[in-house]
């Protein structure tokens, strides 16, 4: 069996690996491993295309959203809010603007 470090060195995680990854990161920081619902992790995984760095960013944002709304668990609702806002913050799966996007220039 491979260790977590071996799995996370790859570019993309499977959904099963994403569940383990999020729970592992929560455990490392002393958080409850079930603070994210399975549906929320799945939504974050799909949006991130399995890229660990993007999973981290979206999960961190979901924790901030959940904390500010005093929610005891990160559910589909919180994940949906984060994902709705991600484009405004340039948090696409490639962590870069789309090829056809025009940069916004300050006026």
Descriptive overview:
- The structure is a single chain.
- By secondary structure, the chain is mostly helical.
- The chain contains 5 helices and no strands.
- It has helices spanning 4-8, 15-28, 38-48, 52-68, 76-86.
Mean pLDDT: 82
Query: Strand count, sense and closure of the main sheet?
Result: none
Q: What would you call the structural class?
A: mainly alpha
Helix content: 40-55%
What is the straight-line distance between the termini?
A: 55 Å
Shape type? globular
The ordered string of helix (H) and strand (E) elements is HHHHH
Beta-strand share of residues: under 5%
Q: Quick one: how many beta strands?
A: 0
Gyration radius over CA: 15 Å
Annotation field: number of helices: 5
Note poorly predicted spans.
95-103
Question: What characteristics describe this protein?
Answer:
single chain; about 110 residues; mainly alpha; 5 helices
Short characterization:
This protein has 107 residues and is mainly alpha-helical. The chain is 54% helix and 0% strand.
Topology readout:
Layout: H1 4-8, H2 15-28, H3 38-48, H4 52-68, H5 76-86
Helix pairs in contact: 2-3, 3-4, 3-5, 4-5
